[in-house]
Amino acid sequence: EEQAEDNSSAECSEPGTMDLKFTSSRKYISISVPSKSQAMSPHIKSVDDVVVLGMNLSKFSKPTQFFICVSGVFMFYLIYGYLQELIFSVEGFKPFGWYLTLVQFGFYSIFGLIELQLIQDKRRRIPGKTYMIIAFLTVGTMGLSNTSLGYLNYPTQVIFKCCKLIPVMIGGVFIQGKRYNIVDVSAALCMSLGLIWFTLADSTVAPNFNLTGVVLISLALCADAVIGNVQEKAMKLHNGSNSEMVLYSYSIGFVYILFGLTCTSGLSPAVTFCSKHPVQTYGYAFLFSLTGYFGISFVLALIKIFGALLAVTVTTGRKAMTIVLSFLFFAKPFTLQYVWSGLLVVLGIFLNVYSKNMDKIKLPSLLGLWKKSVEERKSRTLSQTV
């Protein structure tokens, strides 16, 4: 007993450790209290907390968190889509899609800088060369997407943006030699057929249809498919934050676009036009950028709390609602072919999500249903015989 007391006193004398022992059992509970030098910094402590726009969602229940995230995604992205189409509805603005992207990148850089100042760790972790590549891809994604609205209807652009899987699969086959299962192939076929059908409907009913818009949005889709992998790899490899990624990628992209517009003499006409319509251009562009920045924050929170499966479902519903509101608020020709082709694209999205979560979503097979029905018939026959 004296030896046990000596051992316990020696252990309790260690700094930052308190042991609670019970004489009736050999088991004991050890509670470690870190010293001041080992204390975590504030930004590391709050890693598990989900903070969106200064609001800590971790304090609420799961249903409340889901309601807040879904409300934020729908509210901000519906306003984002409406403002984007509203800007291009201004007479004479359609040739200035790249200038709108320049303004949008400028606002995103400012928002990222403000958010970066609010966190504890302000160091740049990802190398500058990586940011130059990411910025180039971001410019291609958003610039080509905005410019395509000068040639396409907004619903057609949204439908194309839903089909990122197609260039991802093509790149995976030719670049990485990947092999995909039948569900992924079926998803790509549904999306491809839906896109072709939707584009044919657009070319039939739209008086100002231009194939240039299809080429631009297709290139934007390819850049968007690549940028996600590059961003994810860079953030995991160097442990970079979202605010750091936004600040440096969009600020470098701002320089790229500014240099390109200056060399092509596209800056002066855009500035002249926007100075004549400051509210319809700069005012809407500010709200357009702000709602887009807020919307992505709620999407990331939704992914972190509930997973990618539910997030994809919510964002797909948001895109469908955006297309409906586009037809309601902005006059454009309509045909039922839009509906069937859109449903075909939605089916492709569902198959893609199902393929990535086959272990979580178990759909009954035809063979399983047939065996189940045979067993039920046998059980009924046996019961009748008895």
Structure description:
The N and C termini lie far apart (73 Å). It contains 15 helices and 4 strands. The chain has helices at residues 2-12, 42-45, 62-88, 97-118, 128-148, 154-161, 165-175, 182-205, 211-238, 242-263, 267-276, 278-306, 308-329, 336-356, 366-385; strands at 17-21, 28-32, 51-52, 55-56. The radius of gyration is 27 Å and the shape is globular. 32% of the residues are buried. The chain has one domain (61-357). The strands form 2 sheets. A two-stranded antiparallel ribbon has the order 1-2. Helix content is 73%, strand content 4%. It is mostly helical and 386 residues long.
Instruction: Give me the secondary-structure category.
Output: mainly alpha
What's the Cα radius of gyration?
27 Å
How many helices? The count is 15
Low-confidence stretches: 8-25, 27-47
DSSP strand count:
4
Q: For the largest beta sheet, what order do the strands appear in spatially?
A: 1-2
**Measured distance between first and last alpha carbons:** 73 Å
Question: How do the helices and strands follow one another from N- to C-terminus?
Answer: HEEHEEHHHHHHHHHHHHH
Give the helix level as a range of percent.
over 70%
**Quaternary state of the chains:** single chain
> Largest beta sheet, briefly?
2 strands, antiparallel
> Beta-strand percentage?
under 5%
Overall 3D shape: globular
- Provide the residue-averaged pLDDT: 75
Domain unit count: 1
Organism: Hippolais icterina
Membrane topology: Multi-pass membrane protein
Transmembrane segments: 66-84, 96-119, 131-152, 158-175, 182-200, 206-227, 247-270, 282-302, 309-331, 337-354
Protein name: Adenosine 3'-phospho 5'-phosphosulfate transporter 2
